[in-house]
Automatic annotation (TrEMBL):
Binding annotation for DNA: 326, 331
One annotated GO molecular function: four-way junction helicase activity
Classification of source organism: Bacteria, Bacillati, Actinomycetota, Actinomycetes, Micrococcales
Organism of derivation: Rarobacter faecitabidus
Name the UniProt record assigns to this protein: Holliday junction branch migration complex subunit RuvB
Catalysis performed (reactions): ATP + H2O = ADP + phosphate + H(+)
Location of region: Head domain (RuvB-H): 271-357
Keyword list, A-Z: ATP-binding, Cytoplasm, DNA damage, DNA recombination, DNA repair, DNA-binding, Helicase, Hydrolase, Nucleotide-binding
Start and end residues of each stretch annotated as Large ATPase domain (RuvB-L): 17-197
Functional note: The RuvA-RuvB-RuvC complex processes Holliday junction (HJ) DNA during genetic recombination and DNA repair, while the RuvA-RuvB complex plays an important role in the rescue of blocked DNA replication forks via replication fork reversal (RFR). RuvA specifically binds to HJ cruciform DNA, conferring on it an open structure. The RuvB hexamer acts as an ATP-dependent pump, pulling dsDNA into and through the RuvAB complex. RuvB forms 2 homohexamers on either side of HJ DNA bound by 1 or 2 RuvA tetramers; 4 subunits per hexamer contact DNA at a time.
EC primary class: hydrolase
SUPFAM superfamilies xrefs: P-loop containing nucleoside triphosphate hydrolases, Winged helix' DNA-binding domain
């Protein structure tokens, strides 16, 4: 648990690092995002499997006139979990109550939220994997029996007064479904896993966002932005806003391919969506360590970053893209790494470097 929180804290701290390709968002950015969120399921781009399954769950519940099963949404940040939770409430014609694992410090906080729900409401619990254990246990009972036990008194004289709850639908969101305890996972009748988006779907996200923002976006520019967005609508929308800034300040105001390329060049986002940190890590791996294997700490020091930063911010995307591999002896470059950097790999042979992790 401590490690898990440490990692997330490290990732949260990095919001201040101001990466235009970060998949997380701060409060200011979330406000900008609100205007771009699809409101109904038919507006939600991509994720056909989750969308179709969810549509079925909702339609069946509506035709029965009852609240649907609880829904768990998992997947990396920025892929649309919060958006889907809002859509679920909108499709059901009910209101959405929002909380999050870290916001609930004590079981009593959750009891207060639960006991104020009204019939049929949707309760969205973001980062549900970060709920404290007592709150988690309270949630099991609430989800299964629609009841909370209010503890009155302390010690031996304490007693539990059961309080029945209206039928509600819990929607949990997590970036780490694997860390959710099985008893909690099992209480969700439907689990949807969101995948990274392909470029064609990201283009659709961009075209939709441009329309909402009143931007004229050329098809080729949409394609260019999509291909640099790391499979993530949040990043696509952010890059669109940055390209618009560039076009308004330095360009003609028109968002064409040249404007997209120039703007993304200014923000140092390359054609595969790598930014300065990603490239610094890969360049160090190849030029200083002959392509590895090299330990995470050594690699991080060589680019002047904390190991957590490299591990949680740069590495997941680089590994997913096949631009870096993890081996028991450390991080290694792949043939794609050398090609992407335009470097020639050394002739086959051993490595000169020690590995520290
Ligand atoms: N399928 C989609 N179609 C259109 N826009 C989308 C889609 N998915 C996400 N977006 C846009 O991306 C932004 C981020 O989405 P959202 O906040 O739902 O992600 P999330 O998975 O909840 O992220 P986090 O885990 O960081 O909370 C939203 O502003 C939304 O407009």
């Amino acid at each position: 648990m401590a490690d898990r929180e440490g990692e997330e804290q490290a990732a949260d701290d990095l919001v201040g690092f101001d990466r235009v390709v970060s998949s997380s968002a701060d409060e200011l950015e979330r406000a900008a995002e609100a205007a771009l969120r699809p409101r109904r399921l038919h507006e939600f781009v991509g994720q056909p499997v989750v969308r179709d399954q969810l549509s079925l769950v909702l339609r069946a519940a509506m035709s029965r006139g009852s609240a649907p099963d609880h829904v768990l949404l998992s997947g990396p940040p920025g892929l649309g979990k919060t958006t889907l939770a809002m859509i679920i409430a909108a499709e059901l014609g009910t209101s959405l109550r929002v909380t999050s694992g870290p916001a609930i410090q004590h079981a009593g906080d959750l009891a207060a939220v639960l006991s104020s729900l009204t019939e049929g409401e949707v309760l969205f619990i973001d980062e549900i994997h970060r709920l404290a254990r007592p709150a988690e246990e309270l949630l099991y009972v609430a989800m299964e029996d629609f009841r909370v036990d209010i503890i009155v008194g302390k010690g031996a004289g304490a007693s539990a007064i059961p309080l029945s709850l209206p039928r509600f639908t819990a929607v949990g969101a997590t970036t780490r479904a694997g860390l959710l305890p099985a008893p909690l996972r099992d209480r969700f009748g439907f689990t949807g896993h969101l995948e990274f988006y392909d470029d064609a779907d990201l283009e659709k996200v961009l075209v939709r966002s441009a329309k909402l923002l009143g931007i004229e976006l050329e098809g080729a520019a949409a394609g260019e932005i999509a291909s640099r967005s790391r499979g993530t609508p949040r990043i696509a929308n952010r890059l669109l806003r940055r390209v618009r800034d560039w076009a308004e300040v330095l360009g003609t105001g028109h968002l064409d391919l040249a404007a997209a390329r120039s703007a993304l060049g200014v923000y140092e986002v390359d054609e595969r969506g790598l930014d300065r940190l990603d490239r610094a890590v890969l360049t160090a791996l190849c030029t200083r360590f002959g392509g590895g294997p090299v330990g995470l700490s050594t690699l991080a020091v060589s680019v002047g970053e904390e190991p957590e930063t490299v591990e949680t911010v740069a590495e997941p995307f680089l590994v997913r893209e096949g631009l870096m591999a993890r081996s028991p002896r450390g991080r290694v470059a792949t043939s794609q790494t050398w090609a992407h950097l335009g470097l020639t790999p050394p002739a086959a042979g051993g490595t000169l470097f020690d590995v520290d992790s």
